[in-house]
Specification:
Layout (H helix, E strand, L loop, with lengths): L2 H28 L7 H26 L2 H20 L14
């Protein structure tokens, strides 16, 4: 694979990895209230999300140059920004709490 093609693919793949990372984080945090073992859920989510992200960036570092790393990081950060601005669904109040 040529360096130019890898640099062009780094941005959307970095955005996809960022999307999976931050969407997984949001899903994990939203499910902590109903989880029977929230610490285990949080730990497994952390390991899976970090493994995917670090694995991707290590592979990219092996086969690309600094421009590809910069493009992937930009995609990762852009996906974070998009997910932070995405409106959340309203969550119902917890049982037993009155407002």
């Amino acid at each position: 694979m040529t360096d130019t093609l890898l640099q062009l693919l780094a941005l959307p793949i970095g955005a996809l990895v960022g999307w999976v990372f931050f969407a997984g984080l949001r899903r994990t945090v939203n499910g902590l209230e109903t989880s029977r073992r929230p610490v285990l859920r949080l730990g497994i989510s952390l390991l899976l999300r970090f493994s995917l992200t670090i694995g991707f960036f290590l592979l990219l570092a092996r086969y690309s140059d600094w421009i590809g790393m910069l493009a992937a990081t930009a995609g990762f950060v852009v996906s974070r920004s998009i997910l932070l601005r995405r409106p959340r669904l309203p969550t119902p109040p917890a049982a037993g709490w009155s407002s």
